[in-house]
Amino acid sequence: MAVEVALALLQRDGRWLMPLRDEIPSIVAPGCWGLFGGHLDPGETPEHGLWRELLEEPTRAPWPVSAQRPWRSRSPGAV
After folding, report:
1. What is the Cα 43 distance to its own chain's centre?
2. What's the pLDDT band for 29 if we cut at 50, 70, 90?
3. pLDDT at residue number 41
4. Are 38 and 48 in contact (CB under 8 A)?
5. Is 17 in contact with 10 (CB distance < 8 Å)?
6. pTM exceeds 0.85
7. Distance CA 36, CA 49 (A)
8. How many whole angstroms separate alpha carbon 13 and alpha carbon 42?
9. Does residue 43 register a pLDDT over 70?
10. What are phi and psi for residue 42, nearest 5 degrees?
11. How much is the average pLDDT of 39-48?
12. Do 71 and 47 form a contact (C-beta atoms < 8 A)?
């Protein structure tokens, strides 16, 4: 079964915003830089899932976030 995710790279004026993951040993990639986003809920579109994930983040972007240039990949078997 395929796992569906939506991820975002946030960039403005040549600067990138990336979350630094917590140092909790039980999570994936603790203490590493990551991307905003996550798994989609059943029936959720990538766009809705991404906005939900961005709103769930504990911090807010220092500038307004708008969806531009969506890119989709459907790579069977990719991780």
Report:
1. 18
2. very high
3. 92
4. no
5. yes
6. no
7. 11
8. 35
9. yes
10. -55, 130
11. 89
12. no
